[in-house]
Amino acid sequence: MPKQKTHSGAKKRFKITGSGKLKKQQAGMRHNLEGKSSRRTRRLNKDQVLSKADTKMAKKLLGR
Questions:
Q1: 3-state SS assignment for residue 55
Q2: 60 three-state secondary structure
């Protein structure tokens, strides 16, 4: 049987931590940054751990 291919969009968006959790970039940092407060942009710039419900689907796409 052939190998399962990794979803190329998912592998660019998620990183797996040592403990097996998935990290993602917070949305909202692409444009209109002048209108957002510095406090908000700092918060959005941090990586975020994926929720448990989304982790199951994302790991499937990554072939894990």
A1: helix
A2: helix
Question: Which sequence spans correspond to the domains of the chain?
Answer: 23-50
31 Cβ neighbours under 8 A, 6+ residues apart: none
Q: How far apart (Å, rounded) are the C-alpha atoms in residues 35 and 31?
A: 9
Q: What is the pLDDT of residues 4-60, one digit of tens each?
A: 899 999 999 999 999 999 999 999 999 999 999 999 999 999 999 999 999 999 999
- The structure tokens listed for 15 are 């990183």
Q: How far apart are CA 46 and CA 29, in angstroms?
A: 10
In the block, which residue shows the tokens 């209109």? 32
